[in-house]
Amino acid sequence: MGLELRQQLKLSQQLVMTPQLQQAIKLLQLSRLELLETVQQELMENPFLEEKETEADVSEPAEVLTESQAEEELVRNADWENYLGEFSSTSKQATGRDSEIPEEGMSFEARLASKPSLEGHINWQMRLSNFSELEIAIGEIVLGNVDSNGYLQASIEELQSMVQASDAEIESTIKRIQRLDPVGIAARDPQECLLVQMDVLGYDDPILVSLVTDHLEDLEKNRYKPLARKFKISMEELKEYLDMMQTLDPMPGTNFSSTEPHYVSPDVFVYKYGEDFVIILNEDGLPRLQMNAFYMDSMKGAANKEKEYFQEKMRSAAWLMKSLYQRQRTLYKVVESIVGFQRNFFEEGVTKLKPLILKEVAEDIEMHESTVSRITTSKYVSTPHGIFELKFFFNSALDLNDGSQVGSESVKALIKRMIADEDTKKPLSDERIGEILQDELDVNIARRTVAKYRSAMGIPSSSKRKQYF
């Protein structure tokens, strides 16, 4: 059979994810801070993009363009007036960004202080005390094996493999470190930590020492009466011992934890104005982009290779601006839909949160569920009742006796409120909470469902919540 070349026509369809579409999808799911970083990076890399210096005239409403018209407008006018500011349910007064003026003769970095670490704090004390060079070397190894709660996570044998010292020298150094501030640091277990603190404070009562040494588990499980009988003391005397133990710190390293607080910058603000709710997108810090006129003019007389590069960068700039436009429009429409579905929440609070799924919002704004899922990822809204993630408003349903439904988050909020108001000497059981919900809300909820919701909120069982004093 001979080999030959032939030409053949074939018609087929396939789904292709263009780079522009990938960029638009990526922008949808970025958080606010990630979006700011992405835009700043594009400003640095793309010469066709620049930040507008003058604010748009808010007295004239911006014209809403279609996608094809938007790209033509970008190329023709090298600008997009108010391309983000139009997505607001009220006119937004243009405000300039505040500028920080450093103190005279001092840089901004020089006015910031770092948070002291546990290792640095103990090291400072060792070097100011009469620790020998060997003890300081051992102490540094010990501190390197202390967890965030202040407990030593290495055995004497493991420490000995890291530093040339005997068991006695290592143990002696650990005991000296345990008596530095915070007292009890580098203990192997809670008993040792508390006993060191008691020794420093002079708590040498044998009953108190026995409670810490042998009965921490009994205290954790509220087995007070057997302990009172064992030590032949009254419940009031036992309470005095417990009050003394409350002055001790079982986790001395937590005050030096390296975990930093996570600050949330809302993407959307929802305010109540009269009988309506006003939706305003948070544009603070987001650059207002426009096409660079200099490079637009330079493209006209450029050579072929240069023109190809210019056209690529110009299309990239246009797509970024259009993707930002679409992102803000989608975010506004999703929040507007959520406010419509969850109006009772915005009026009265979390106990009025209704069951809601992505499909309902997607059908309301005529978009795909995946788009709604992406735009609600890592996005936060500031409401009259606090700051919530957009995904918070989507929750499952529990059936009521009258055939209607209530949101699971509303039931969780009611459970939390009931437990907060309960008598601590007679805490509510899961079964009793279910009965109260049945009486007050007519909600069909099983005891195991109450237990599941309670565990999800980090609330202990009734036996552990009970207080005897």
TrEMBL record:
Keyword Transcription in record: yes
InterPro entries xref list: RNA_pol_sigma_54, RNA_pol_sigma_54_core-bd, RNA_pol_sigma_54_DNA-bd, RpoN_core-bd_sf
Domain of life: Bacteria
Every RNA polymerase sigma factor 54 core-binding domain range: 108-295
Alphabetical keyword list: DNA-binding, DNA-directed RNA polymerase, Nucleotidyltransferase, Sigma factor, Transcription, Transcription regulation, Transferase
Pfam families referenced in this protein's UniProt entry, alphabetically: Sigma54_AID (PF00309), Sigma54_CBD (PF04963), Sigma54_DBD (PF04552)
NCBIfam families given in the database record: PRK12469.1 (NF009118), rpoN_sigma (TIGR02395)
Protein name stated in the entry: RNA polymerase sigma-54 factor
Biological source species: Pseudodesulfovibrio nedwellii
Record lineage: Bacteria, Pseudomonadati, Thermodesulfobacteriota, Desulfovibrionia, Desulfovibrionales
